[in-house]
Amino acid sequence: MLRVAVFLLSTLALACMLSVAILAMQAGVAIGFGGSALRVVASRHTVIEALDILSTVAAYVGFISTEKLFDGHRFVKALAVLALTFAIAAAGFAAANIHAPFLVFGFVSGVFLRTIQVFMKSSLVRTGAATACFAAGGLLSFQAHPSAFQYAIALNCASWLVMGAGYQLMAGLAPRVDEALWNGLQRI
Question: Angle at the Cα of 184 (from 21 to 121), degrees rounded to 5?
Answer without folding.
Answer: 55
